[in-house]
């Protein structure tokens, strides 16, 4: 008999007490219970740890959001550059706010396009005021101008190249198309802003639309609303008096024979300034040489 056979014979002949098997089973059950308890403890610790971490993350996010809000508001109020370039949300009184609905920049064939489209949002929900039509008009105006301006620039580029210009010379033109807006009045009473579209290579197609909204009614404000029924006479008198003072100071205006000022029209452009006075605006070249740019006249008195 070999060595392995002898070891097997001794193993088979070993007496194992019945209580040993019982004790083994008890120890197995005990071990399993301890394992389950340890597993539950680990889960509990992990869940508590997760809750703690989650709370810390939430608190951190809230703090970060608050800090970002403070910094964002500060930047809007102190930096004109930031306010122009960022998608801003300046609060207009306590009733409405104007924000950037869409903003994008692109470049095609060395033609740069920068678009920032505003939209009005009512903050107070119980005013009953709807600005949907105004917002749609602004959106359509901005999109149409940007599309048409790009088409004009592309036609200009084609003509330039076909008449002997080179790609390098075209790039030096630095053609830019810009659509944006400028807020003039921010109060509980009025919201006044201008939507502009410009092309730096020509002034013939620039556009400026003035929006003056009464926040109490949701209606567009007219000069008659601000100055009274004799608004035309009042505005004409104020403009002529200011023109005379400016001419005495050296400014140049076109004469009536040259196509200069002869009186305002019913649809004259104006915005509302911080003193709640209407400011009538004449476009470049309208009543004065181009070097004067836009000409403004603040009208006081009236109602």
Task: Write a brief caption for the model.
The protein is α+β, with helices and mostly antiparallel strands and 303 residues long. The chain has seven helices and nine strands. The termini are far apart.
Structure notes:
The structure is a single chain. With 303 residues, this protein is α+β, with helices and mostly antiparallel strands. Helices cover 45% and strands 24% of the residues. The chain contains seven helices and nine strands, in the order αααβββααβββααβββ. It has helices spanning 3-12, 18-78, 80-85, 132-162, 167-171, 223-227, 231-248; strands spanning 91-92, 96-108, 111-122, 175-186, 190-199, 202-214, 270-272, 278-282, 295-298. The strands form two sheets. Strands 1-2-3-4-5-6 form a six-stranded mixed beta sheet, with helices on one face. Strands 7-8-9 form a three-stranded antiparallel beta sheet. Strand 2 (96-108) and strand 3 (111-122) form a beta hairpin. The protein is flat and about 60 Å long. Residues 50-55 and 57-93 have low confidence and may be disordered.
Shape: flat
> In angstroms, what is the radius of gyration?
38 Å
Q: What oligomeric state best describes the polypeptide chains here?
A: single chain
Give the averaged pLDDT, no decimals. 79
Number of helical segments? 7
Low-confidence stretches: 50-55, 57-93
> Largest beta sheet, briefly?
6 strands, mixed
Query: Helical content, roughly?
Result: 40-55%
């Amino acid at each position: 008999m070999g060595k392995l056979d002898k070891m097997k014979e001794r193993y088979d002949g070993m007496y194992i007490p019945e209580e040993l098997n019982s004790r083994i089973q008890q120890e197995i059950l005990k071990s399993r219970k301890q394992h389950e308890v340890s597993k539950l403890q680990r889960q509990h610790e992990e869940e508590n740890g997760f809750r703690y971490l989650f709370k810390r993350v939430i608190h951190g996010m809230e703090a970060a959001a608050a800090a970002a809000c403070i910094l964002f508001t500060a930047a809007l109020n102190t930096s004109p550059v930031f306010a122009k370039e960022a998608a801003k949300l300046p609060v207009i009184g306590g009733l409405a706010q104007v924000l950037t609905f869409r903003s994008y920049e692109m470049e095609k064939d060395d033609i740069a396009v920068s678009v920032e489209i505003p939209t009005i949002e009512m903050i107070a929900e119980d005013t009953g005021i709807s600005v949907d039509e105004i917002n749609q008009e602004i959106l359509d105006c901005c999109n149409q101008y940007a599309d048409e301006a790009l088409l004009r620039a592309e036609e200009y580029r084609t003509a330039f190249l076909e008449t002997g210009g080179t790609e390098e010379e075209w790039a030096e033109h630095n053609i830019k198309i810009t659509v944006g807006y400028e807020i003039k009045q921010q109060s509980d009473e009025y919201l006044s802003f201008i939507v502009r579209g410009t092309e730096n290579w020509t002034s013939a197609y620039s556009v400026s639309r003035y929006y003056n909204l009464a926040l109490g009614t949701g209606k567009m404000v007219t000069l008659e609303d601000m100055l009274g029924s004799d608004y035309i006479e009042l505005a004409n008198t104020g403009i002529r008096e200011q023109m005379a003072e400016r001419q005495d100071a050296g400014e140049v205006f076109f004469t009536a024979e040259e196509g200069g000022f002869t009186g305002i029209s019913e649809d004259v452009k104006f915005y509302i300034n911080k003193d709640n006075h209407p400011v009538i605006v004449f476009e470049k070249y309208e009543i004065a040489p181009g070097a004067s740019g836009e000409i403004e006249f603040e009208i006081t008195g009236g109602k």
